[in-house]
Amino acid sequence: MSYSYKKPRVGVIGVGHLGQHHAKHFNTMDSVHFAGVFDIDSQRAEKIASFYKTKSFSKINALVSACDAVSIVTPTQFHATVAEQCIRSGKHVFLEKPITRTIEEADTLIRLAKQMGVIIQVGHIERLNPALMVLKDLDLNPKYIEVQRLAPYTTRGTDVPVVLDLMIHDLDIILSLVNSPVKNIRASGVSIMTQSVDIANARIRFNNGTVASLTSSRVAKNKVRKIKIFQRDMYITIDFLLALTEVYRVTDFHTQDPNTLVSAPLDQNGQHREIVYEKLPVHTTDALHQELVNFVDSINGKSTPIVDGQAGRDALEVAIKIQNMIIEDTH
Ligand code: NAD
Question: Which atom in ligand 1 lies closest to the alpha carbon of residue 156?
């Protein structure tokens, strides 16, 4: 086999719906040696391995020994045990979201990873969504954030409530945008198709006064993924599905900008205000590929994980609080 010894050897554990895409991307990356895959469904592992011309391991230990780093894309209930085994063997882990089922499990993994000197990255893929990433050049100080994430019903992901499946993406985004501890939460939800909560709404107030309102549903007719961010003199709308990021800036002078939407008359202070519209250029990229490149770069010391174990844990903590509140509310 010809590969540079410097390239990290990577593997994928769990090659179901999402894991197959991890395999696809590792297969195309020159910066890694794709060592192979493991799945408790050996036929599935063999199928994916043969498609991506890699090895199918029949024992997890053998794959772990053959790798420097692994993507763990098993159902969430197995994240903690599989990741613990990999971390104890000194391997870097990319864990799909949510990091684990419980805070205790997440804390154990984070502590162990620190002891072993390995990286934990968590697959909160929306953080790499180009429509969100273009905000990095704006002076953000959100006061109110409104989020909608609605999806038609599928059986996938229904092993966990909608808060841990869908809303957690937005909780991670919001925690990355609001630099303040959570002060209080209100939440409610309803079970419609499954035994757990299928539609949920949460209102989070942060210590700095920022409020976020989130609605997540997995029983919607159509897919919707939108965020609106409001702050002094600016508001932003993002449509993740359309990769559309629009900014409305308020100025107190005549801009003569052709994109001026509203030119208000002088107010009682004699001030003139205009709302100027701008559509930010969003260059669509494959967010999963970018995530895995970020993981490999982090292993090589060229970067740090955009969503590390602690960020994954923090999003989980808020998600669990919301979920518990909904359960208390309905009993
Ligand atoms: P899936 O059921 O399609 O695939 C899971 C695979 O893991 C199956 O092939 C199964 O045989 C295998 N498996 C189960 N237990 C295992 C074990 N102990 N060891 C090895 N293999 C095992 O599930 P999925 O939809 O691909 O979801 C997998 C994970 O990815 C979940 O944690 C889910 O929350 C997450 N996910 C994240 C996103 C995202 O947007 N980032 C999207 C979908 C799923």
Answer: 25
